[in-house]
Design brief:
This protein has three helices and 24 strands. It is an alpha+beta fold and 345 residues long. The protein folds into four domains: 87 residues, conserved putative lor/sdh protein from methanococcus maripaludis s2 fold, CATH 2.40.420; 82 residues, Elongation Factor Tu (Ef-tu), domain 3 (Beta Barrel); 63 residues, OB fold (Dihydrolipoamide Acetyltransferase, E2P); 76 residues, Orthogonal Bundle (Helix Hairpins). The strands form six sheets. The protein has a six-stranded antiparallel beta barrel with strand order 3-12-15-14-13-16. The N terminus is likely disordered.
Length: 345
C-alpha cells in the first residue's frame, strides 16, 4: 500500500514538469505581415490542355498505302509521313510527256512553214490562203501543246501528292489507315499533334465575361499542388441558349500532356483593395477564426477576424488589424494571448 501511495504522489510532479516546459519561456514562431493588396472574388472552372497544331492528315489521291509512319514518331515540317503507290500516275506522266513532245514538234514545223510561206508571198509565189491556213494550223497546234502541258502538270501534281508530308512539326498520335489499305481522296491516314505548342481551353459563365480580358494572367492548377500563372490569349464572347458560357484560351509554355484537365481561376467581380494576411496566419477554433499579432514587446495578442476573398496564399481579413501588423504564420496553434514569443529568421 505504501508503494502505491508513493507512486500516486510522484505522478503529479512528473506531469507538471512537461507542462511547465511547454508553457514556460518564449515560444519560437515565424511571422508574416498584413498588407493591403488588390484582389477579386474568383471561381474555378474546368479547362483542357490542347495543342494549337492538331490535324488529321488525309489522302489527296486514290491508291494503295505503301508506308505510314509509326505512332509516336517525331517529324519536322515537310517530312514524309505516308506514301501512296504511284505506278499508274508515273506511267500516265510518261505518256503525256510523249504527247507534249509530239505537239511541240508539230508546232515547230508549222511555225517554220508559216515563215517560209510569208517569204514566198513577197515574190508572189505563195497564195494568201496558204498563209492563212498555215497560221490557223499553227495556232491550233499551240493550243494543243498548252492543253497537253496542263494535263502533264496535273499528273505531276498528283504524283507529288502521293507523299503525305507534315505541315508542321509534331508527333504521330494516331494511325487511322494501315499499310496495304486502299484509300480514296479525303480518307484520314494519320493524326499529327504538336506537343510543344499548347494552350488551355476553358469555359466560364457569360455573366463573368466582362471581368476577363486578353493579356490577364490567371492561375491554373494542373495537379495536386502545381499552380501556374498563365496569360489569356483571347476571349470568345459567343454563347448559346443551352450553355450560356464564353470561351477563353490561355497560352501555355509549360510541358503538360495534351488532353489533361486543369482548373482555371476566373475573377467573378472587379478587383478591389483589401487587407490580407497569409492563409497560414488563420487559427480555426470552435469559437471562430483568430489571428495572433506580435506586438513590439514580442508578446502574442489574439484577435478575432472574419475572412473574405482569397488569392493564392493570401486571404482578406476584417477586424482589429492594420497593414504592417506582424502576424504569426508558424507556431500559432499552441500560442496563448500574452505569451512571449521568439521570432525565428
Amino acid at each position: 500500500m505504501k508503494k502505491i501511495l508513493s507512486i500516486l504522489v510522484v505522478l503529479p510532479i512528473l506531469v507538471a514538469g512537461p507542462l511547465q516546459a511547454q508553457w514556460g519561456g518564449a515560444s519560437i514562431v515565424e511571422i508574416g505581415e498584413a498588407r493591403v493588396t488588390a484582389m477579386a472574388p474568383t471561381m474555378q472552372v474546368a479547362g483542357t490542355v490542347v495543342s494549337r497544331s492538331d490535324a488529321f492528315l488525309s489522302a489527296e489521291v486514290d491508291g494503295r498505302l505503301i508506308s505510314v509512319a509509326d505512332v509516336g514518331s517525331r517529324v519536322e515540317a515537310g517530312d514524309v509521313i505516308a506514301r501512296i503507290e504511284d505506278t499508274s500516275l508515273r506511267l500516265r506522266a510518261q505518256e503525256l510527256a510523249a504527247e507534249v513532245a509530239r505537239a511541240r514538234a508539230r508546232l515547230n514545223f508549222l511555225e517554220g512553214e508559216l515563215v517560209r510561206f510569208e517569204r514566198l508571198a513577197e515574190t508572189n509565189l505563195a497564195a494568201a490562203s496558204q498563209i492563212d491556213q498555215t497560221r490557223s494550223e499553227r495556232d491550233i497546234a499551240s493550243s494543243d501543246l498548252a492543253v497537253v502541258n496542263s494535263r502533264l502538270g496535273q499528273i505531276e501534281d498528283q504524283l507529288q501528292r502521293t507523299s503525305i508530308t507534315a505541315p508542321f512539326p509534331g508527333m504521330i498520335a494516331e494511325r487511322v489507315a494501315q499499310v496495304g489499305e486502299r484509300v480514296a481522296v479525303g480518307t484520314r491516314v494519320v493524326r499529327l499533334v504538336n506537343p510543344d505548342s499548347l494552350e488551355v481551353v476553358a469555359r466560364a459563365p457569360l455573366s463573368y465575361y466582362r471581368f476577363v480580358r486578353a493579356g490577364d494572367e490567371l492561375p491554373i492548377v494542373a495537379g495536386v499542388d502545381e499552380i501556374y500563372q498563365v496569360p489569356v490569349r483571347t476571349v470568345v464572347s459567343v454563347g448559346d441558349e443551352a450553355r450560356h458560357v464564353f470561351e477563353l484560351r490561355l497560352d501555355l509554355d509549360i510541358s503538360l500532356p495534351v488532353g489533361q484537365t486543369v482548373r482555371v481561376t476566373v475573377p467573378t467581380a472587379n478587383v478591389r483593395e483589401v487587407l490580407a494576411v497569409p492563409r497560414d496566419a488563420l487559427v480555426l477554433r470552435g469559437d471562430g477564426i483568430t489571428v495572433f499579432i506580435v506586438d513590439e514587446d514580442n508578446t502574442a495578442r489574439r484577435i478575432r477576424v472574419t475572412t473574405g476573398i482569397g488569392a493564392g496564399d493570401w486571404i482578406e481579413v476584417r477586424g482589429p488589424i492594420q497593414a504592417g501588423d506582424k502576424v504569426v504564420i508558424r507556431g500559432n496553434e499552441r500560442l496563448r494571448p500574452g505569451q512571449e514569443v521568439s521570432v525565428r529568421g
